[in-house]
Predict the structure of Nicotinate phosphoribosyltransferase.
Amino acid sequence: MTQDSVNRTLGIRPATAPSTALLTDHYELTMVDAALKDGTAQRECVFELFARKLPNDRRYGVSVGIGRALELLEHFRFSDAELQFLSDTKVVSPETVDWLANYRFSGSIRGYREGEVYFPQSPLLEVRSSFAEGVVLETLLLSVYNYDSAVASAAARMVSAADGRPLAEMGSRRTGERSAVAAARAAYIAGFAATSNLEAGRAWGVPTMGTAAHSWTLLHESEEEAFRSQVESLGVDTTLLVDTYDVEQGVRNAVAAAGTDLGGVRIDSGDLPVQVREVRDQLDDLGAVNTKITVTNDLDEFAIAALAASPVDSFGVGTSVVTGSGSVASGMVYKLVARKDARDNWVPVAKASPGKHSVGGLKFPVRRRDEGVASGELISVGGLPVGDDDDRPLYVDFVVDGEIDRQWIGPAGVTRAREHHAMAIAELPRTARRLGRGEPALATYYIDEHGNTSLA
Amino acid sequence: MTQDSVNRTLGIRPATAPSTALLTDHYELTMVDAALKDGTAQRECVFELFARKLPNDRRYGVSVGIGRALELLEHFRFSDAELQFLSDTKVVSPETVDWLANYRFSGSIRGYREGEVYFPQSPLLEVRSSFAEGVVLETLLLSVYNYDSAVASAAARMVSAADGRPLAEMGSRRTGERSAVAAARAAYIAGFAATSNLEAGRAWGVPTMGTAAHSWTLLHESEEEAFRSQVESLGVDTTLLVDTYDVEQGVRNAVAAAGTDLGGVRIDSGDLPVQVREVRDQLDDLGAVNTKITVTNDLDEFAIAALAASPVDSFGVGTSVVTGSGSVASGMVYKLVARKDARDNWVPVAKASPGKHSVGGLKFPVRRRDEGVASGELISVGGLPVGDDDDRPLYVDFVVDGEIDRQWIGPAGVTRAREHHAMAIAELPRTARRLGRGEPALATYYIDEHGNTSLA
């Protein structure tokens, strides 16, 4: 076993991973600069990451990102390259450069488990630290959560629409090259079976798959020659792409090349419900009754649902899953919700901007359940634990006093998140499966320290 | 000068940059595997990167990505970590692992300059190499081009709508953490003045900006205290965020804290046309006649255009620019368009899939111009040079026989791209500035070897 595969098994990233410290907005460091000067930098604060609403009036969202965020946090270090840049460009004063040189996050982070479903105002992440240590994480945490959760939230709906038939994520080419890896990971947590993205396989243990593109057929003198060569190389259980020229001829060539044991055919264009039916009949007529059909043409959750009665065996989804099916940013924000005052008491704080208000105070969220079925999102404001035996507390610790709990990272963290997601989805009421616009599947309630509840 | 700043000036990335070789779809390596077995791996091929149409019926697109792609190409090397993964998971045969271990792109790449405008079927990039060397670049090139060009295409319309007033990109938190850096770069090439993203400043020389968030105000006992502290730290020409609680009171507090020389105020919520007018009047009444107003509330090109008559001095744009303003994937594809036959002649190849056909053959594109104004996109199919003195050839060489032309990479490449973009936009007919849906500003024509032209 090489060191790399040992590392991979243990979920350890290479030490040469680049610094993530400048994946940060300029104003965060300007604030640190000013806070170091006026003495507020060390003030203890709580920042909260949440979404005011679900995109596109969906029924639920899926919180994904913490496993990646924790690894990026480990590399949130200002090395010479970063410090020199900040110094050369005078983004901050020399005193702040020195402070940044020693930056290590020493606070605590807790929140919703990766793969958990969420609703408007669900307090997905709580960062408790000095102002200066917490404020600089705003952009990095939001970038990860907003993108990864957008993909997972779309992917979960596709999994639901596919109703047990496997889905493969193959949209790497439709999103930034590193976002592609995150997308493959997020879709897998949300129930996809595999990805085309090799780096997601290497870094996160997501199963990878793929056989050939149209260029393979075009490279050869004829489609039949291309098919024969592919079968020779990959075996008869490969999947042949049959729509380069003419689908009917393509299916004939495929069975001629592989025989009736051919593993599968892939269709990447055309009017799918009609096409799939025709191909199934043709395969059956040719005796290839066990040959599977996979479709990959511009699918989203609605197109998948429309193929419910078609003899499709599996789906490949590209653009729509990596772009969050119309909502590529989840609309999550990171707000200061509480700070300590001079007498060391927590003071809830909130902004009042129209349409963008926040709810101050520490939170403690539980998933209310009645006989195992989720019935509400109950958030204690003030932070006191609430809920009865049936309810499920939603916070777990990710970082305690600067120490990252490593069970949440690496491939093992992905496996854990995928399992947790399946449980959280199974617990939702049936209305959650509706694809159309509507109300969230669960209402969010606040409960104050006197036990009074109100709708969020 | 440190080594790092020398490197930055020269546009050299750290040697420890991670491998990009697995930012690749599984099927590309499966094809290489099969092609090494059947002898087609060394067949000379031309792949073309292009878009069949413009997103959202826009008037033009902006091609951005080559500067990043060339740097990623330099790191497209299969090191031990990548090879071990491919070997462990049996994605390819041991012979192919050996071939990949020695992979260096030795072909040639030419295409549209970074920042160039494009139209449907514009052949943005031509990759000429052996099949095996070229096919493995498909996903990486498309990821970069699809995302970066989506951002640049949206950004260019915002720049046009802002009509001379400066724009800052501040959407890092609304896209994947590494895509954020690419987005800042792309928006800058398309004419934005600055970004909030610090890594874009360090890596690409994009000017960065920012002062404070709402958390800064909430951290302090009062808004006025927060403003006074900010002014003390950043000077009176800073920009104060005035909408945490009440805008009118915020403006009063701002001028009280900084005096009438206050640099600017920022408004991040509310009904902007009304709000901006009121704030301008209030600032003028308070004597702060030179204080600028910047707005940052969910702007896109349409919202910016709607503020044409408002006394806004600058715009900050977040979500919409980093998500391509409704089109986050540009729809670009990478297709095999020609290959050599056994007698070393080029054979044009094309797929015929409905709605997804491609045009075979080598291309040579020029921007047709009449008295300096662009009037058409003329593409010679077959690759013979066309065009008269007025026309502008669109291809430049990026890689020749494996050697990257370094003028296109690093911060210097970004500066070059930004200048080229400004020229290419200025050359377009006035119809290109229309924000509404419609026909491309230029029609695309093919011209064959006999001089016959046809609409694409």
Chain A has a mean pLDDT of 94. Chain A has two domains: 3-136+331-455, 152-326.
